[in-house]
Design brief:
The protein has a domain of 78 residues: 2-Layer Sandwich (Potassium Channel Kv1.1, Chain A). The chain has five helices and three strands, in the order ββαααβαα. A three-stranded mixed beta sheet has the order 2-1-3. Strand 1 and strand 2 form a beta hairpin. The radius of gyration is 14 Å and the shape is globular.
Length: 116
C-alpha cells in the first residue's frame, strides 16, 4: 500500500483494497481504491484508517453528495484532472466549487506527521 506521504499511482498502490462509498440519497454504490481516496481526502482517511465502523467495514455513506460530482471527484483522484463529461457546468455552479464536503481543509500529505 502506498504510504500517506507517497502519492499513489497505478504502479505503487494496493489494487486489492477497495472501499465502498454509498453516494447520494439513493445510496448509489461506488468502489474506489483505498490508497487514492485516503491520500487525497482527510475525511475519508479518518473514516477508513480510524477506529470506526467505516474502517472495519470499508464502507461509508455520503448521502448529501451528488453522484455526478462524486464521479468527477473519483476521476480526479485517479487522473488529477476534473472531467467535463459529467454534465456539470463548473463555472456556473459555484456551490460545487465552494463545497467543503470532501475537502482536505488545507491538508498537505507531504507535510503531514507520520501518524494521522
Amino acid at each position: 500500500m502506498a504510504s500517506e506521504k507517497q502519492r499513489p499511482s497505478f504502479t505503487n498502490c494496493d489494487f486489492i483494497q477497495q472501499v465502498n462509498i454509498k453516494v447520494g440519497p439513493e445510496a448509489a454504490p461506488v468502489s474506489v481504491f483505498e490508497d487514492f481516496i485516503c491520500y487525497h481526502s482527510k475525511v475519508f482517511r479518518n473514516a477508513f484508517k480510524g477506529p470506526w465502523k467505516e474502517g472495519e467495514e470499508k464502507a461509508v455513506s455520503v448521502a448529501d453528495t451528488n453522484l455526478a460530482v462524486f464521479g468527477a471527484f473519483v476521476a480526479w483522484l485517479y487522473t488529477g484532472e476534473i472531467p467535463q463529461a459529467f454534465g456539470i457546468d463548473w463555472e456556473a455552479d459555484e456551490d460545487i466549487l465552494d463545497s467543503d464536503d470532501l475537502s482536505n481543509d488545507g491538508y498537505d500529505p507531504d507535510e503531514a506527521d507520520e501518524e494521522v
